[in-house]
Amino acid sequence: MNYRKKTVKFYTLGCKVNQYETQEIREQFLKAGFKEIQDTQPADVYIINTCTVTQKADKESLYYIRLAHRQNPQGFVVVTGCLAQLDREICKEQAGVSLVVPQQQKPQLFKKVLQKIHFKPPYSFSNLQSGISFFYGHSRAFVKVQDGCNNLCSYCRVPLARGRSRSRPLKEIVEEVRRLTDAGYKEIVLTGICLGSYGRDLKPKEDIVSLIENFEKIDGLIRIRLSSIEAQDITAHLIKKIAEKSKLCRHLHIPIQSGDDKILSRMGRSFKRSQYLELFNKLRTAVPEIGLTTDVMVGFPGETEQNFQNTISLLEQMLPLRCHIFGFSARAATKAYCMKDTIEVDKIKARSGYLRQIARQLSHKYLRCCIGFCQEVLLESYTDSSRRYVQGYTDTYINVHLAAKKLKLNDIVKVKLVEVKDGFMQASLL
Asked: What pairing do the DSSP bridges indicate for beta strands 7-12 and 291-298?
């Protein structure tokens, strides 16, 4: 079948790495002459890049598969990603699915699709560019530097879907970041399934700090931000680099998952409560203004009220700017799947709701401490259709709103933080 319109639509679930991988596939289709459809109009080809980190992610992935088929019953629907890796048969059973490409075959997806629809691109497959040259819909570009994970947390399916940790070659990543910087991106976000393990499998070995130092040499690149990084991978060398006030943002997303040693042990986490407290103290001492964000899992099997309270007290010491809170979800083929002392769904929902209230209070407390600070903001978007106000982020990851008069998106401006609002700060231009 040779498609006349050659249109494609993408649905992406899950993490920043998945978003990066969709962008890589997107550029391959656009280079071949396909037009991307953004609205509700039907497309010829659909790419659903799935996630399977929770039961909710599974349901959302299946929803978008069904949505694609409803939009165009004759469309060529491709399912890929982690759900396609671990539950391939479930994906194949969905009405309208034309092709399932498991996560570990995702690099070959573009070629597989074109072969199936009998479409010949205007170039050789061997000429495909590695990496990306822009990042659709974002002012900051995500750059995948690593895939896979060697940590075996008892609740997590991701290592089963993506395999062991593998790092991209340093030269390849530097070339990609330079390309993105030349395209006008002033901030890049380094992403990976286990970002802090970058470089340990390379010869010679590298680490996340050496990667950052290579990026700092690129003219035009203003900011380098790390996405999620595990506590055990935050070295003294990395803390020193953040404190240098170089291009590296003063922000870390550190998943804690729990603040109780018993639950952390059952989760298979490598850090204890006392180690988290020691790390937070080191970070605040070295970088007083640092913005910390985190992930917390509520209702892990065996979690008592006291275990839950220990998580709250750890968050109070951490003082996170943002907290992603989610309930435990039993995932097949994980150690936690067979644990018997599960928590009632209603109790998980109640604890999650209460913890979100606490998280909002802690965020407000952190933001109040920042009033009067002068910081730089990357202007990313208008707050509404009137375009009276523009919003962006400081390097510490504070969401800032300010009057848009005479301001341009993608500029970096210096502001004074003046007032805490609901989830953001109002600022004045300096």
From this structure: unpaired
